[in-house]
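Objective 1.3, modelling of assemblies. Example input:
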Amino acid sequence: MGAYVVRRFGLMVITLFGISVLIFVLLRLTPGNIADILFDAGGYVDPADKARIEQQLGLDKPIVLQYMDWIGGLAHGDLGFSYQTEKPAIDEIAPRIPITARLAVIALTFSVLIGVPLGVISAVKQNTILDYFLRVLSLSGLSMPSFWLGLLILMGFVAYFGTIPIYSDQPSGFWNTLLMYSVPAAAVGFRSSALMMRLTRSSMLEVLRQDYIRTARSKGASEVAINYYHALKNALLPVITVIGIEAAFLLGGLIVTETVFNIPGVARFLVEAIRWRDYPMVQNLVMFIAVVVVTINFIIDMLYAAVDPRIKYGN
Amino acid sequence: MSTLDFNAELAAAGANVHSRWGAVRFFVRRYPLGAIGAVIMAIFVLAAIFAPFLTVYDPLTTNAAVSLAKPSAGHWLGCDFMGRDVYSRIIYGARISLAVSVGSMLLGSSVGVAVGLLSGYLLGWFDLVTQRILEMMQSLPLLVMAIIMAAALGPSLHNTILAIAIPLVPYVARVIRANTLSLREQPFVEAAKAIGMSETRIALRHVLPNTLAPLIVLATAQLGSTILTESSLSFLGLGVPEPHPSWGRMLSESAAEYVRTAPWLVIFPGMAISFVVFGTNLLGDALRDLLDPRQRS
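Predicted structure (tokens):
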């Protein structure tokens, strides 16, 4: 196990290094840099001014040096400065992280609480009207763009309360806070719960065909005990592994949802930074997302090895 | 047998395949939901093709007199801020949205097939390096990857296709590679080798056609996700540029502020996206069930 953890960790570091190179190179392919954008707004270009700004921002250095500057800074916890606000990037990003993290956790909870039980019901009642209904429901969840679902929810608020839930920095009380995060989280979580439900269903069906389920049935165990004690426990294993995929899925959904609900989180910030071609911000934000996704996948791999006794790594 | 044969698959499942209609009838009976999905997709494709015959108004012509007009007999689904007919824009939008998503699905799948086939066939360092790169691409959410690509390439119709296609490549390549790895051990490949066929010919004539079944399943599933990615990109203003009427773009113009004042601008384009993706998902599920016996329930 120890050797496996080390090897898996090494792979994770290599992956992150590769991603950093990938992002860096991609962003340098972009036509026009921040200096061009600033001058676009001004309406004229003075080559001397432009050169001065590029020098100030370090854009005149060779690309390899620019990369080294960035990575070297990251290693010291220095994320550089935002071109747009001229504040340290870390000060811009840090306060947004808890907002997105809360949204993601609530959405994930939502998707597990809804997706897993419905998936089990769908599998147990396979090929009944209920199963068909739940399958169509989950497919429609996967088919709706999450930003549209968010807009529909806003529309519902307008119709019933005459107003739109507005994000505030200082919500009053625990329940208001929870409500404020729950609405956008539900918009993202619905899509994720659909994915969760489909996976639980197919995993459950797989397990229900196993010999030990027939054994349990023949020794007279009740259907309830079979479904929820014998089957579900084993069916949940593969479901755990998809939480990693789910995390990536959720972060993608949060980008549009934070935009719809006007929530100042990390995901919406990425879109804004891209519009401004604010390289340090985009690099750092994408790197942050990559670190989160890769770390979650690492933890889940470890967890999987710990939970499933059949898996022995490093032999 | 070295090619995918729908009839054989259907016959194995008990269909009367002597007439073409027999196969279709069987599919409809066995996979009613899949058939509904196919019909939904067909409706959208036909609407895209025959758009000029289905609409009265030009999707790009602005008319201040009907700015934000409610749905009425004249304008079935209302008008947007610039007085453009929403119904026309949705029908013409099917052209843009479907062209971009089908285009990126085809591009992403072809590159993915090429990479996967090479990787599974050459193995060695090429395979090792390719697999690492694909893993890196996959560790970023699809939409994040597409956003960066779109930003790096700049806004245009072609670039949007590219920006959606590239993030798809790893998903296709990994499935095709896994398939190639198991196929190259099959007796018919050995037989082809024994009669002195060249490696290239074996790869293209024997291995490639056999990866078609998983590819079709994957491609259908991906069509749904490319449509959603396109709409998200356009919604964020990073996808299909003006004046093309793309569904996602229509929502970005009308987003949050029109929720209150002009809900028809929000409801209808979103319905178009959801319906067509729903159709691809229904069909995709049925095809997976038919072509991938391991998943058959």
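Chain A has 13 helices and no strands.
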